[in-house]
Write a structure and sequence with these properties.
four-stranded mixed sheet; nine-stranded mixed sheet; single chain; 11 helices; alpha/beta; globular
Amino acid sequence: MSLVTFGETALRFSPPDGQRFETARNVGLRADGAASTVAATASRLGGDAVWFSKLPDTPLGRRVVAELHEHGLETDVVWADPEDGRQGLTFHEAAAAPREDRLLQDRGDTAMGTLRPGELPMGQIQEADVVFTAGSTAALSETAADTTGALLRAAGGIRALDLDFHPGLWSAEEAHDTLSDLFDAVDLLFANEEQAKAVFDRTGRPRELVHTIAADYDFSRVVLTRSEHGVVAYHDNVLHEQDAIETGPPVDDARQHDVLVGAVLQQLIDGAPTDEALAHGSAAAALARTMPGPLTPIEPAEVERLVAANTDRGR
């Protein structure tokens, strides 16, 4: 039972909490990507997961893989000549209200934007139980979008896509136009509520939103995350809801959505029903909020403990 993810993982630069780049003297450096975080989470929770990508054969590209290996994630990377593509970067500034977080994207002309289907082991993609990628990969270039569609259509198992919409990469209209061409090859769509409203140009309550999106694009499942308000899903004409698990002030909530996705996919691969998968995803996201960085050392026992405690509380 396996999960294959593919996509770009950037290097995320962040100054210490509360500081801005224009005044900071020190910054942290972490690998940060939707596909790799999803795969790493599923792997930590006992799943058989591998992340495919294309990176420049440079110290920065090797830095990404080294960090992913530290988390026990299996990787399969196409190494590009540095002249053919660079390493993607992001710059993240965390802030407390009333200030807002900032995410600056520097992901033009990256190696992942040149990836073609023939560079990846298609046999593994065809045999995987779930193949996952994110819209941020399709945003990199026309070649990347074409490759994303080809790999999803080649998948033999569940084909999952996360909108992963970032205005710094493309507009909501561009995202919708490009991703709409891929939706026929998607069974399961993940999205953050605000991103879904922007890309699909929709309003309304979450329960209405997941139903409308599933009906309009013929997805078998839609999972909509709502940060501190939990998660709503649509599957086989049934709506499912899961409350968020309360935590203290978040340490780093930038990748809680991706951690939830990884936990949900790991549960679905193991045959769990939708409600159980969402419960595990909510628990994993809660744990992710309490630790710094996009790749967090979540333990299966901690997730199970939170799921059990939350289930008992709801009785």
